[in-house]
User: Fold these one by one.
Assistant:
Number 1:
Amino acid sequence: QVLPVESGGGLVQPGGSLRLSCVFSGSGPTILSMGWHRQAPGKQRDFLARIAPNSGSTLYADSVKGRFTISRDNAKKTVYLQMNNLKPEDTAVYFCNALLPSGYAWGQGTQVTVSS
């Protein structure tokens, strides 16, 4: 079983930066890709970015392209989300996930609040 565990959230001022981390604990099925989504209060969970563990190829939502960067460290079984130039509308719970042959495994989420 693969269990993603996020960390790195917190309170940051507009224009600031945060780096989220997600460690994939456990073992078992092959991880096909790793990604980040977020969910603001009262809104649906939105896709942000994905990365393939072997090739490192990435995919971003238009809303974060140029501000957010996804990366991975396969040796540490960790995926990162570097977030720059944060805006109040980036406030949300950020979720990490692993795409497995059987479907998605989700973490519990980490809160990011952008406010002055």
Number 2:
Amino acid sequence: QVQLVESGGGLVQAGGSLRLSCQASRRTFRDYAAGWFRQVPGKEREFVGAISRSGGITDYADSVKGRFTISRDNAKNTVYLQMNSLKPEDTAVYYCGARVGAWTTVYRDFISWGQGTRVTVSS
């Protein structure tokens, strides 16, 4: 397992941008695929984006394609989520997860989670 800490959330107007960061504790973070998920009250945790161990493969939910970009810097043990053209429906608590091996869109497949960072998009 690896410890993860998210940061970068906040309040932003519709059409604005935020960059979320997920800092990992392990120096072998390159062995872990990572993903971003979000959750609002009354809904299940929703897949946002995932990235492979090397960063060479990324995948996104249809709702964020073209607006969000996931990336990683294994030398810094960090995964990022760049969020552009934000919409009110993007409002949620955003979580990052990590697992040894291949990337996945299923949150239960991740073995490590951060505590989340809140994103609020006003209209």
Number 3:
Amino acid sequence: HVQLQAFGGGLVQAGGSLRLSCAASGRAFSSHDMAWFRQAPGKEREFVVAIRSSGGSTYYADSVKGRFTISRDNARNTVYLQMNSLKPEDTAVYYCAARIRGILSTMRFASNYDYWGQGTQVTVSS
């Protein structure tokens, strides 16, 4: 089992940057695919980005390509989300998620993830 806690959300102006962290506790972090999802008020939770257990492959939603970067440090049981060039439409609660390494094509679906962090609020002002 894996327990996750997200950090780093806050208020930032459009065009600014934030770095989110997700600290994991539990067994075999390096065997888990990790992802970030986000949810804005009144909207469904949506996929943002995922990273393979090894850190070798990454998958980004079209809306964040070129602006967000996911990385992981398996030695520290931590995954990061560097968010640059933030836009007001990025405003949401961001959730860290984990699953045992699985099929690549399913990484964008929330239902495939077994463990979730509590979420951290990101607010981007105009």
